[in-house]
From TrEMBL:
Keywords: Cell membrane, Lipid biosynthesis, Lipid metabolism, Membrane, Phospholipid biosynthesis, Phospholipid metabolism, Transferase, Transmembrane, Transmembrane helix. This is Polysaccharide deacetylase. PROSITE patterns: NODB. The keyword Transport does not apply.
Length: 418
């Protein structure tokens, strides 16, 4: 994680460098700041989180320069440079839109504001990476604050918008802290939730969430087949419907499948009807495509409601979380994913990885690093004496598997062959 902090600090320093000329060259230099900062972040650590930290850093430096007593300049040119790096076509569209708006409005600030209005709507359609979507929303928020139309400025800008920005910042910090500390470590303190297997045998279970994916899941299956490893895949119902051949391949090659809801929606805010839909529709989709009714369930982000637990219990599902996350959702470098697993594994670990998905959307994440890290993870864990099992094998191994309420310490016989 320290590498992301380094990226943010260096980006802030770059953004803080003042541009002392006041002609058109100023905008070109500031645009280059944004573009080159993201390019450098990509060269140093090519991940969505590295781009996000670089963007926040350079925008903060531009608006609150350390060389100008933490005052600064507007961020529209730097923002355009960032967008041009993420999508040159989108950046050119914004430039053309600004030119047209400026001819009509004949006011620079209002033209920038008007142009920015298309950013949030276009971002969700153009970008498949959640990090790029979030960066676009940050850019939009910054421009709105800086270029709010004068006739509304006195009423809203000084009070409502700044209060909203502060509130949004605090809320974002809380959400990031919550997800990092709890959600991606398997949140949920109820006693009947499975987090890991028995600690006295050197068995571990590889689990993959958010698939099937047409690109990354087949590559992961190839690696597992080559290494003679069976894993557990928690599937999203919509993805099963869209990529049935990949879902069938998972089952045909002897891996275990579980449900991960139909659309990757968090279960906590859902109504009873919405929860029923997510669980039952996924079950129907998986059974129709693979011929297998899932009996394992993992809630998106590890978060679940009391109603969901009751429904799952009634439908005889086993609720499975994890005790070790590869943190590959952050699109870390392969060596960092390997380190996260190998340096923190223990007997009975249920290891969380992803073959698709992203922070906001249920598909579209870059899982290249996961694919690259997987062979090394398998080899290094085997070198430490670990063997790989599926979740249902792990349950069989200790009858009910160790939970937070109780554990069965007696070995009940060999793992069934698959």
């Amino acid at each position: 994680m320290y590498k992301f902090i380094i990226i943010a600090i260096l980006a802030y320093i770059i953004g803080s460098i003042p541009v002392l000329i006041n002609d058109y060259r100023k905008y070109g230099i500031e645009l280059a700041k944004g573009f080159l900062t993201l390019m450098a972040a990509g060269m140093y650590l090519n991940s969505g989180l590295s781009y996000l930290m670089a963007s926040v850093g350079v925008l903060a430096g531009q608006s609150r320069s350390m060389f100008l007593k933490f005052s600064g300049h507007t961020t529209e040119a730097v923002s355009l440079g960032i967008i041009l790096y993420m999508s040159p076509v989108f950046g050119i569209v914004l430039i053309m839109t600004f030119i047209a708006a400026n001819r009509f409005l004949k006011d620079y600030g209002q033209s920038v504001f008007a142009t920015s209005l298309i950013i949030p709507f276009a971002a969700f359609r153009i970008f498949t990476s959640d990090s790029f979507v979030i960066i676009s929303l940050i850019i939009f928020a910054g421009i709105v604050i800086q270029f709010w139309p004068p006739f509304l400025e006195k009423r809203l800008r000084s009070k409502v918008l700044y209060d909203a920005l502060i509130g949004l910042g605090v809320l974002s910090f809380i959400i990031i802290f919550f997800f990092n500390k709890y959600v991606y470590k398997g949140f949920g303190m109820q006693k009947d939730i499975i987090r890991h297997g028995p600690h006295h045998f050197k068995y571990v279970a590889l689990t993959f969430d958010d698939g099937p994916d047409p690109i990354y899941t087949p590559e992961i299956l190839d690696i597992l087949n080559e290494k003679n490893v069976k894993a557990t895949f928690f599937l999203i119902g919509k993805n099963v419907e869209d990529y049935p051949e990949v879902a069938r391949r998972i089952v045909n090659e002897g891996h275990t499948i579980g449900s991960h809801t139909y659309s990757h929606r968090s279960l906590i805010p859902l109504t009873a009807k919405g929860t029923d839909y997510e669980i039952k529709k996924t079950e129907a989709a998986i059974e129709k495509v693979t011929g297998v009714r899932p009996t394992l369930f993992r809630p998106p982000r590890g978060v679940y409601s009391s109603y969901a637990r009751r429904l799952l219990k009634n439908k005889r599902y086993t609720l499975v979380l994890w005790d070790l996350s590869a943190i590959d959702w952050a699109e870390l470098a392969p060596k960092e994913i390997v380190s996260n697993v190998v340096n923190n594994v223990k007997p009975g670990s249920i290891i969380l990885m992803h073959d698709s998905g992203d922070l906001i959307k249920y598909r579209g994440g870059n899982r290249y690093s996961t694919v690259k890290a997987l062979p090394e993870i398998i080899d290094k864990l085997r070198a430490q004496g670990y063997e790989f099992v599926t979740i249902d094998q792990m349950i069989f191994l200790s009858e009910l598997m160790e939970t937070e309420e109780y554990s069965h310490e007696d070995y009940l016989g060999p793992i069934p062959a698959y």
